[in-house]
Specification:
globular, about 85% helix, about 325 residues, mainly alpha
């Protein structure tokens, strides 16, 4: 007798969070190696000054810390009373899952972990996952739009004329999502009501807790500001002479947004290819941009275990302290 999908999902949810983190990071690293990322890592590290590596990693780590605080703020917005360490563990684990699995599994896993480890109802956990996605996608769209407004319009026109393939890919992704949503909403009344209830939950929690919603929004802006700084540091480290902030905006906004929406786990290869396309359209050194893009991705896999280790140590210390005090 085969195991039902609901049974497999229950077993997955019952898996300890540290084990989920470990398995996901192994799978993610294997996928990166198969995409050819590892072949350029050695070259990238040889070209970078050690202090540049340290500075980029420290700022990247600060950015991940900001996202951990943001997830805690979203959980508080949803009415949860969990600590920052527990929220950080859920967030960091779900980030690794995102790089080990398509978005179709990564998003439900973040919801499941928030339900299990943070004690949030399924609908509420899904609603804050939606808010997180809207914050990130909205900020990236804003960065990409600012790039076009301050001087990237000509490069965008060239991309449309000569690199329409990747824009068509985004169009197909959005079209597929729209068609599926319309079909489900029109043909299935139960799903339509569920979607309405889900959206109402997301909106109502933001209205009830504007302080936490505002904090999450500000932390999103801070995170992406730090990411812009990290990418600029890496570009300089790989020999791109004095890259303008306009160029950094162009390399970050639309390429990262489309990479997030792509079905490839973590957008591996997609984001880097789009960054190179933007670099080519703006006259930048494409080799330096590719190396910076690869190093930017690898910084995540260096800092994730570090932050996760600190989080687990914090949780274990406070648990043992609570046991002694009790």
């Amino acid at each position: 007798m085969t195991e039902t999908s609901s049974g497999r999902w229950r077993r997955l949810r019952a898996t300890p969070t540290p084990l989920v983190f470990l398995l996901s990071i192994v799978i993610a690293l294997v996928l990166l190696s198969r995409s050819g990322t590892w072949s350029t890592v050695g070259e990238a590290l040889r070209q970078l000054d050690p202090w540049t590596i340290v500075l980029a990693l420290v700022i990247y780590g600060l950015g991940l810390g900001v996202l951990c605080i943001r997830w805690h703020a979203l959980a508080r917005m949803a009415g949860g009373s969990v600590g920052r360490a527990a929220a950080s563990e859920v967030f960091l684990t779900s980030v690794v899952v995102n790089y080990a699995a398509p978005i179709g599994l990564a998003v439900p896993m973040r919801t499941a972990l928030s339900t299990r480890d943070l004690g949030l109802p399924v609908g509420v956990a899904a609603a804050i996952t939606l808010w997180e996605a809207l914050f990130d996608l909205g900020t990236l769209a804003m960065i990409g739009s600012v790039w076009i407004a301050i001087g990237g319009a000509e490069a965008a026109r060239l991309l449309l004329a000569n690199g329409g393939t990747w824009l068509a890919a985004l169009g197909l992704i959005l079209l597929a999502v729209a068609v599926i949503s319309v079909v489900l909403t029109v043909l299935v009344s139960r799903i339509r009501e569920r979607i309405r209830g889900f959206l109402a939950t997301a909106i109502s929690m933001a209205r009830r807790q504007p302080r936490w919603w505002g904090q999450a929004a500000l932390l999103t802006l801070l995170f992406w500001a730090l990411q812009l700084v990290v990418l600029r540091i890496l570009l300089v480290g790989f020999g791109q002479q004095s890259p303008t902030w306009e160029a950094v905006f162009g390399l970050t906004g639309w390429p990262v947004l489309i990479g997030m929406l792509s079905p490839v786990p973590g957008g591996a290869g997609v984001r880097e290819a789009l960054m190179v396309a933007v670099a080519s359209a703006t006259g930048m050194d494409t080799a330096a941009v590719l190396l910076a893009a690869v190093a930017y991705r690898m910084a995540l896999f260096v800092m994730l275990p570090v932050l996760y280790g600190v989080t687990r140590w914090w949780i274990a210390t406070h648990r043992s302290g609570a046991a002694v005090n009790g």
